[in-house]
């Protein structure tokens, strides 16, 4: 039948065209994956950027795997979005490497990447916050402009990635979250990371993308919105990276310093209190029962030649030791 043959030919042509358009985009995704691997290999494992980079590499590889399977309704469009999306993070990395300031949303992560009081899970979520809530809506708009389509074309596949990201985020939380034996001590961490959700972040990113798309005919308004989005996401990122405590090494060192000072109490570090030990000579009665302490010399504790002034030098030394134990600056 002529009609059937023509339809089959048209379908085959559409599939071939889609495959032809997808291949170069897949190569760009592969290039982004190579960059992510190189970045991870060059950074110390404990670096805050490295923590996020490992998680993002896992996500990008998972998306890349699904681009060649019957998973997305429009794999070519999603390959384009994935490449554009990754490019924004890589631009931030390149800016820092060149000595320039990255976008405001990325600054907290790059500035605090080596802070000893920030937990690795905070680094991972701060990177996700910057990349999803700021980079993703801009990447959606850029992708739609390149493809000549509205965001609605990407909506279905956008939601499909939500489930993929939720699984990765859950794995990251499970791997990085402290065990149940120390959860009581890291309660501030659980509260902070529990306030951030990848689903909520992606919903907000989609709303921002739609708003930016509607403002595409008003460049000044769109630019103002993008700038405000960058700043607000940066503020949230800085809150996510609030240092929550000292490292164990600092605690042990502080405990050691506190233990060296006799005559003062110090409850910092591990929570132990170092109390002065004083040998008391007690008189005993004939049955061995403890009696009263011997009477003190009223002149004891006075400096030679100081008249009636109390010997405050020892007290000041003790105060200085307590300041050092508490971590506060001394006068």
Automatic annotation (TrEMBL):
<protein>
    <submittedName>
        <fullName>DUF5995 family protein</fullName>
    </submittedName>
</protein>
<feature type="compositionally biased region" description="Low complexity">
    <location>
        <begin position="1"/>
        <end position="18"/>
    </location>
</feature>
<feature type="region of interest" description="Disordered">
    <location>
        <begin position="1"/>
        <end position="22"/>
    </location>
</feature>
<dbReference type="InterPro" id="IPR046037">
    <property type="entry name" value="DUF5995"/>
</dbReference>
<dbReference type="Pfam" id="PF19458">
    <property type="entry name" value="DUF5995"/>
</dbReference>
<feature type="compositionally biased region" description="Basic and acidic residues">
    <location>
        <begin position="278"/>
        <end position="287"/>
    </location>
</feature>
<feature type="region of interest" description="Disordered">
    <location>
        <begin position="258"/>
        <end position="331"/>
    </location>
</feature>
